What we know:
Radius of gyration: 29 Å
Largest sheet: 7 strands, mixed
Distance between the termini: 55 Å
Low-confidence stretches: none
Number of helices: 10
Helix content: 40-55%
Strand content: 15-25%
Amino acid sequence: QPNVSQHLSALEAHVGKQLFERKPRRMVPTDYGKLFYTQVIDAIEKLEYIEAEFRYTRSSNIPLTCIGTSKEFFYSILASNISQAPANLVFEFCPTKELMQKLNSGKLYFVITSNRNDEKDIVYEPIRTANLLLVGNKEFDTTEFDLFITNSEFDKAEKWLRDKDWYAYSSDLAIIRRFWLENFKKRPTIKPRFVIPDYNSILKGIRFGSGITIASDYLVQDDIDQHHIKEIWKGHHPTQNTIYLAYNKNNVTTDQIEMVKKLLR
């Protein structure tokens, strides 16, 4: 065919050798052509394998789906369900701001986040409501604190908390601040002893050491049930955190949306 002949001529010009002898109705490889073939066939077969892998979408026709979330949410909610997904999934863990940038640029299809903004074409669907809990080491003596709470002596309860060793997820105390504002009507003045951007590590530190933190109930419930840590206080006003599934409505299919929602149930 003319197109094939053009490509072969261009290839021969590039390598500087004649690779085929042209004969009526057929082409015969020269010795240089056979040598060239043995040198490139392994690379070609590897490329064909990679291409086939990227096209592989299991039995469903749902395309490869890229999801951004926190490591803690993935471990607590998604990890046990992903084998049920009918499509191939790629997960990415990084700060929410960076995940949303990747969603807006089309590098991610979905982001699971507790922050809601007003970007064009981005849909935020609420998928879960989490309660923030004050938790600590299972041997932590809270007798005095419990008495303050029972007597509604919240100023004394706040002072008691300020004097303790705190674990925080971030230096801006975002989660702790929300809990504090809801229950003490002021910003926290605590200075965390440990700032660790990973709740699994925070909970392990509390379990095998001491100190307290505030975290979403879905992150700590298993550890509480297994008596690794204990719940200290829900707050006299429940502090709730809404978690959203964010996606660009122009970049995802209905099947992808339903698949991800099913994983999150």
